[in-house]
Amino acid sequence: MREILEKISKRVSDTVCALPQSFKKGEEIRMGADGTPTCRIDKLAEDLVLKCLEEMELPWNVLSEEVGFVDRGGEKTLVVDPIDGTHNALLGIPFYSVSLALGASSMSDVEAGLVKNLVTNEVFYSEKGKGAFRDGTKLRVRDFVPDESAFLVYIGKYAHSDSMRVARTSARTRSLGCASLEMCMVAEGKLDAYYMNCEVHEKSIRIVDIAASALILREAGGRLVDLKGRDLDMPFDLNARSNFLAFGDPEVKKVVL
Predict the structure, then answer these.
(1) Sheet containing strand 77-84, strands side by side
(2) Contact residues for 190 (Cβ-Cβ < 8 A; gap 6+)
(3) Does domain 146-256 fall into CATH 3.40.190.10?
(4) Are 191 and 213 in contact (CB under 8 A)?
(5) CB count in 10 Å sphere of residue 201
(6) Within the chain, which residue ranges are assigned CATH 3.40.190.80?
(7) What is the reported pTM?
(8) CB contact burial 147-178 (16+ within 10 A = b; e otherwise)
(9) What is the CATH number of domain 2-138?
(10) pLDDT tens-digit series, residues 212-231
(11) Which of 203, 204, 251 lies closest to 227 in space, CA to CA?
């Protein structure tokens, strides 16, 4: 499975990295299935994934933020965020990825997930029950030390007021704009937590953003819960949204929730 997902992600990476400056990455060409505008770079990456499935004759359905659900007659579905962190890519901020997860119907049954940083080419990968890895190195979440704590907190336009309370509980706080990679940073023990609390439901996280990185985090010993503390599960449905807390050490949950 890893070889297949890596091949698809490499196709996206090689093409995106080779784009000429004249390519209009940010040109909005249509409205995506998730209700947000589709930029040219998103459509390019998504088309590459779909083309790979055809060429490799993989009998998988597809759920992607631009095209929506594509029924290809398969028992499994590939959940795709072709460019996670699109605005970072458009602004020239080197922190965006392609995210691929394979499962049946929800986050809880995802069996394999891959997130590739399209700038550094780092690959995060996991299979259920087999651990999580970055470029072959096994990942493990870190212990929580309050005086050395570092949180990721969504503090954008739609952030709930409680977000600042959470930010102030940490010694260091960041908001980086790419959910899949941010989740992976918690999985590899660089950070203690990732907190998202949007006061507008439609702006909360979607399954395509974190289907792969959720498995990576959990296989690295971390947990992903909703803001009531329940293990988070999300259906393969672009209309489903959720706020969440991702963490490694259970002490973080006590502090935040």
Answers:
(1) 68-70, 61-64, 77-84, 97-103, 112-117, 123-127, 132-134, 137-138
(2) 142, 150
(3) no
(4) no
(5) 10
(6) 146-256
(7) 0.96
(8) eebbbbbbbeebbbeebeebbebbeebbbbbb
(9) 3.30.540.10
(10) 999 999 999 999 999 999 99
(11) 204
